[in-house]
Predict the 3D structure of the following.
Amino acid sequence: MMPEQSPISVCVVTTARADYGLLRWLIHDLREDDAFRMQLVASGSHLSHRHGYTINEIRRDGYSVACEIPLDLDGSLTRAMSYLTTKLGEYLTESRPDLLLVLGDRWELLPIASVCTILGIPIGHISGGEITEGAIDDSVRHAITKLAHIHFVANEVYANRVRQLGEEQWRICISGGPGLDNFTRTRRHSREALEDDLGLSLERPTALVTLHPPTNSLDTLDSLLNEFQRALVLAQEEFGLQYIFTAPNADPGAGKIETALKRFSSERSDCIFVPSLGPTRYISLMHYVSIMIGNSSSAFHEAPLAQLPAVNIGDRQKGRLAGDNVVSVSITAEAI
């Protein structure tokens, strides 16, 4: 008789609404499966009031957080990375999970992966092999691929790119995008509930707008903001669009974007700015709005399932596989 195998201890680290929205159902399944013992670490913008204090969204979903690591996102990011390295190192030295699981390509992954490498903790990485030429995320993603031990990729194209980086075939699993589970497993809000919640009628043509900094070319940010806002005005005049703005990720340059869009929305009755919609409201809105505008990866990942047209601006997402719903344009008001 074989001895009973102990559960596999998996530590999931989430640092922003962006990765949590994609991980939430995987976190649920790991918690419910007796073959695993799941522990959750939250850091980054989850613990920032300016970014919506989205750790409350995790708690509302019923998940307990084993370790919280707040970071100063308004100061030096290198200092924040150093602090994350220290605090996560202390936690992992005590908890010693069998596997640490991360998703994506944000800068926070660099100290997380470094700690695991030093402590000898295997890393599972979701969404490797992708390309986003206009952001430092591109370099981070490939660096994490070389530090990771198991790779969960979205499709064969990305799997082949991971192979080209020298990873062994047996380490690569084509698992699709976990964020797509939101479309089949999340109970959506009704149009009426969203309208009451947001204080905005969705009867008019509405755009869901998210603009992130082009972190590989921050010198173009002022021009991007000027052309972007001019395009929003032109679209309102021509199509009668109203806008729901969400805050950018906590990247260099995000504060300037947030300030500009808050000002833009405060000057118009048919625009609102919401720091974080949360996964359920965001997914729900994608079924009721007319279009997405900006440079969010959700235009490429989730919007096709909602059959939602998307205008992708600039080079931040350049290199991603795109569905027919995405139109990529240059940074001029007329093109947008």
Observations:
- Residues 70 and 277 are 21 Å apart (CA to CA).
- The longest strand covers residues 36-43.
- The chain has a mean pLDDT of 93.
